[in-house]
Amino acid sequence: MAAISENYAPTIALDGSRKTRGNLTQARIRWMILAILLGFVVVGGRLIQLGMVVTDSTIEGQARDVITATRPPILDRNGLEMAVDIRVPSLYAEPRRIIDVDEAVRKLVTVLPELDPEWLRKRLSGDQGFVWVERELSPALEERVMRLGIPGIDFITESKRFYPGLREASHVLGSVNVDNQGISGIEKHIDNEDVALLQDIGLARGNDLAPVTLSMDMRVQHVMYDELQDALVRYKAIASAGVMMDIYTGEVVGLVSLPDFDPNDPKSALVKGSFNRITAGIYELGSTFKTITMAAALDSGKVKLTDQFDARYGIRFGRYTIDDFHGKHRILSVPEIFKYSSNIGTIRVMQALGKENFRAFLTKLGFDKRVPFELPEMRTPTIAKEFSDVGAATASFGHGLSISPLHMAVAVSALTNGGNYIAPTLYKRTRAEAEQSYVRVVQPQTSDWIRYLLRLNALEGSGRQMDKEADGYRVGGKTGTAEKVVNGRYSNSKDFNVFASAFPMDNPRYAMVILVDEPEAENAQSGVTAGWNAGMVTGRIVQRVAPMLGIAPDFSPALDVATTPSFLRSSGSGE
Amino acid sequence: MMRNLNIVLMLTSAIALAGVYGLKFSIEDTANQRSALVAKIKSQEGDLSLLKADWAALNQPGHIEPIVRRHEEALGIGPVQQKQFGSFADLPMRPAAPDSKALNALFESLDAGVDPIDAILEGLQ
Predict the structure, then answer these.
(1) What residues of B are in contact with residue A226 (Cβ under 8 Å)?
(2) Which keywords annotate this record (chain A) (predicted)?
(3) I need a surface site. Which of A169, A218, B71, B125 has the fewest CB within 10 A?
């Protein structure tokens, strides 16, 4: 100011000093306005610049939200948790903020000795904003890492799936990957259904997902798991599996397949042979198939329960002769054919029905395609489009065609529930809901006859060992002992044993299929056919689960008489 | 006049300044409290999820059965057997109630000195 006024001082003061001062003030004001404007421009520019910056909030390509996304808890039908989310800390690093990589590596390795220092050094050097170091640690380790006080190292809380039942329901639940996406079982189905969609549109971020209630009963599941595990040891079998379903609602209450995997450790699912044998395995189910042949024949009206068939001689097809395993070699009535599991008799019954009708019946039971079911692990059955004479004959007793055990469970349900096909489900469903999707496959009368035949087989046929185990629970069932194909030939020593059953037969509620692969005799007195292993396992399971399912034992012979059709009662059944 | 106005304005701005700063700090304080609470809730939710998982694991039939088996002998328990079930129909009928009226009549007649047996005995003679 002084300088300016001094500059002006020597000039001739033409203007009055007041005017000079006024001019000076105006100039100063202009400079001030300019300076202020500049200041605003700088601040505004910085604001725009900050607004343009896109902060990288993703974690290695994924939104942070997705990492912490939760999954709905899965409950069994009684509300017991089968899968829950737990919050676990995951360790990450921000390499661009790490000052001394070597020091960070040295310190981290003291707490996490399983990390490779060389790998860790590479991971922490560079200019990235975010890298995972180790995911899903325990809170105790989190504490210790935090105490190291390394800059640029921090934790994020992730959701981790935990299956409190451990291995027991592994095949039903499936598993999730480290990013909490379902990769198998019902977890994958839930994702396909809605969770993925919810997560995509930004929901499913909190803890507020409604739980998914399954039709499974963990008590039944546990008993089946326990008994099938026992079967592996008892019969030195290589595999065993079982499924139990409500015959009226189609709800699957138990599904076990051994060997299995640990869903808490998804890598264990990669072990060979741990696939779901119930849905993703297709097998020749042997004589259990006779139930289906009988139902087809009886329902057509072309065969009556009172009919007799000649089973004296084996049936020749070209070079082959089909004979009976424990042949009676005499004329047998229809209940006797079933009871003695006569191949010859069953072929004759099928021939009386006609192979086209027999084939059409299999289509009706859904044996041409996969069972409509929630699990993604399903296989299509192999079954000829049209049967040759020989093909139809072998098919009538369950050889030359492969279906999944679940197909058989669904078929047994349909044949014992009054003749209605109901697709199985893993979700809770009431009977009224199920009835809307009923498809009639056989008449109620035929269903009654099948109940009688199954119960008869338990009382007098190959199901006797089973019935001894589950005495009083009125189980009816059919055995199937199929020789396994080894190197393209049926083996004499390796069997695949099945037991298809329903209980309690006077008013059936549950159907069950149990299979035991390559069993050996339990002791010198017992055999290797299905009645001795798959059958007895069935009996032991029913003995344990029936009280849980509200089925009381009843030893009254009147109940078995009541299941016998009236025209067979006086003469007795067979011999 | 101007001077007074200026003083008033300066005072007002000084008070406003102090007020705004006070507000700012109190809000910062509240925000800190909030984030501390959020962090606490988060960690408690985490603990809760672990406890829930624990509870679920402890409730599994597969976890309970081995415990039951271990104490089977000491407690004298075992899997339920078919013969242990009963129904109401199996219960025996209630024994016929004593005929209290007749008994009362008997005692009354005894009190009155009349023994009905006497009459029968006399009849026999």
Answers:
(1) 62, 65
(2) Carboxypeptidase, Hydrolase, Membrane, Protease, Transmembrane, Transmembrane helix
(3) B125
